[in-house]
Design a protein that fits this description.
- Chain B: This is Phosphatidate cytidylyltransferase.
- Chain B: Keywords: Membrane, Nucleotidyltransferase, Transferase, Transmembrane, Transmembrane helix.
- Chain B: GO terms for molecular function: nucleotidyltransferase activity.
- Chain B: Pfam families: CTP_transf_1 (PF01148).
- The complex is a heterodimer.
- Helices cover about 35% and strands about 15% of the residues of chain A.
- Chain A is an alpha/beta fold.
- Chain A has one domain: Glycerol-3-phosphate (1)-acyltransferase, CATH 3.40.1130.10.
- The radius of gyration of chain A is 16 Å and the shape is globular.
- The model of chain A has no long low-confidence stretch (mean pLDDT about 85).
- By secondary structure, chain B is mostly helical.
- Chain B folds into three domains: about 70 residues; about 110 residues; about 140 residues, no CATH class.
- Chain B is about 75% helix and about 0% strand.
- Chain B is built from ten helices and no strands.
- The longest helix of chain B is centred in the N-terminal third of the chain and has 29 residues.
- The chains are: A alpha/beta, B mainly alpha.
- The interface between A and B is medium-sized, with 12 and 16 residues.
Chain lengths: ~200, ~325
């Protein structure tokens, strides 16, 4: 109920629209890892809100613990509404390795939203991807890796601003990456980044 | 203030519009049954999408007008907000504009409509052309971002003028005091919107049926001389025929309608200029078949101020 209201408000405010370049009825069933460019705090919200409800219920955003665990309301939001998976960005050891968390979640049947750049960019270019996406693909080759280009979000809420503007943005879903398990690390990360850049309509 | 006030004239116009739309829907249905070729099918599909959208627009507009002045003002404030959103989305702005745009969306636009709501004509008429024009560049300058400073400032100011200031002259008609026409200004607003929108529709119909010579092909490939003349003249006559709902006599209504249609046409042309410059076909996708909200209100933007001032000068106290 709260979830539907939150999504409705987000879509009304930003006029965000999902565009599926591959009809999502043609996509094979199974767990998905949506990976997107990152330029705004709203990114995962918009991506999550524009997913069809049936998919959304099984999709969990992956977010930084150091940001989301900083205050009680944030922690509550991330836990109860978005069901986010909070991962460590610093001080990673064998016992809190994010990949294990993500893998466990995928194995439970969830899909994930990931921002492989690791941090927000200015929105003009996509940074090189961190290797986490590759390690995830190696551990979970059965998941479909779907590039999602978020357009105009860097203008809605750029880095350093705290009041969003009501501008219209698009969420463009691409075709899943192929031959995930056969590629080398650099090859995979490059291809993943390129698949995202190709979705940029400009 | 009456919540729902329908006098017999208002009732007649509602019945008329519903009748007209019903006929259009029937024609659209018959045409859809008859067409075979793919090319004409696309045109007919678009026509039917437009007619369907018209039903919704008429419903929204009708409910707003019938709910009284406050309802109309809220509706137009919402239209301005959505139009501004489309305009700014398609206008390249930079990081430095973020706070300035916040002012445009969340302070100036609501304040402007608030002034109409409290009937403060003196401040309403200068808020955006004078005070927004002063405040926005100041806000922009204080960010320290000087790249394309003049162009950026001009874009935001122009967006406010078109999407908020010009459009708001339509609901501002509700604030006029016309002797012998008290409490009936909603019909004046209805007259303006009906004539402008019928002019667009009739230009489209005349153009599709008889159009040959393109009027400004670089700007708008669909506008033809035949559509322009036929549409403007027939919509002007329609305006004259609607004089019974206005404080004007037949000739005054026809002349005013003619001027409205003319400005509406040029409004469409100017907005096409922006679209061609930005390399887009429509401002948005909000209204099925029509494009964005700006595509639908471009003619009102340009005709509302002229109509308001003419009525205010010649008919109001």
């Amino acid at each position: 109920m709260i979830e539907e209201l939150v999504c409705w408000f987000i879509k009304l405010f930003t006029g965000a629209r999902a565009q599926w370049t591959v009809g999502f009825d043609q996509l094979q069933p199974g767990q998905r890892v949506y990976f997107a460019n990152h330029s705004s705090h709203l990114d995962f919200l918009i991506l999550w809100a524009t997913l069809p409800p049936a998919l959304r219920h099984h999709t969990r955003p992956v977010a930084a613990r150091d940001y989301w665990a900083r205050s009680r309301p944030r922690l509550w939001l991330s836990r109860k509404i978005f069901r986010a998976i909070l991962i460590e960005r610093k001080n990673i050891s064998r016992c809190n390795n994010p990949i294990d968390q993500l893998k466990a979640s995928l194995e439970q049947g969830d899909s994930l939203i990931i921002f492989p750049e690791g941090t927000r960019s200015s929105g003009d270019t996509i940074h090189n991807f961190k290797s986490g996406l590759y390690h995830l693909a190696r551990h979970c080759p059965q998941a479909h890796f779907i590039p999602v280009y978020l357009e105009n979000l860097n203008r809605v809420l750029p880095k350093g601003e705290f009041i969003p503007l009501p501008l219209i943005c698009s969420v463009i879903f691409g075709a899943p990456l192929r031959d995930v398990s056969e590629r080398s690390k650099d090859d995979f990360l490059n291809e993943a980044k390129k698949s995202l850049e190709r979705l940029n309509p400009l | 203030m009456p919540v729902l006030s329908i006098d017999s004239e208002l009732g007649a116009i509602i019945v008329g519009v519903v009748l007209l739309l019903s006929i259009a829907s029937i024609i659209g249905y018959v045409l859809a049954q008859r067409t075979q070729s793919d090319k004409s099918k696309a045109v007919i599909d678009n026509l039917n999408a437009r007619i369907r959208a018209w039903w919704f627009m008429v419903l929204f507009f009708g409910l707003a007008v019938l709910s009284g002045n406050t309802g109309s003002i809220i509706l137009f404030a919402l239209i301005s907000f959505l139009a501004l959103r489309e305009f700014i989305t398609l206008t390249p702005t930079s990081r430095g504009d973020h706070r300035t745009l916040f002012w445009a969306f969340f302070i100036i636009t609501p304040l402007h409509y608030f002034l109409i709501w409290i009937h403060w004509y003196g401040l309403f008429s200068i808020l955006i052309p004078v005070y927004a024009a002063l405040v926005m560049p100041i806000r922009n300058a204080t960010t320290g971002d000087t790249k394309d400073f003049l162009a950026r400032t001009a874009k935001v100011q122009w967006a406010l003028m078109v999407c908020v200031y010009f459009v708001s002259y339509a609901p501002a008609l509700l604030t006029l005091k016309i002797p012998g026409y008290e409490g009936q200004n909603a019909k004046l607003l209805l007259f303006l919107v009906l004539v402008v929108q019928m002019s667009d529709v009739l230009q489209y119909v005349w153009g599709k049926l008889t159009g040959k010579r393109k009027i400004v092909p670089q700007l708008s490939p669909n506008k033809t001389v035949e559509g322009f003349i036929g549409g403007v003249l027939s919509a002007s006559l329609l305006g004259g025929a609607l004089c019974w709902m206005t404080p004007f006599n037949f000739w005054q209504a026809t002349l005013l309608a003619f001027l409205i249609c003319l400005m509406g046409f040029f409004g469409g042309l100017v907005m096409s200029g922006i679209k061609r410059d930005r390399n887009i076909k429509d401002f948005g996708t909000l209204i099925q078949g029509h494009g964005g909200i700006l595509d639908r209100i471009d003619s009102i933007c340009f005709s509302a101020p002229l109509f308001f001032h003419l009525v205010r000068f010649y008919f109001a106290l």
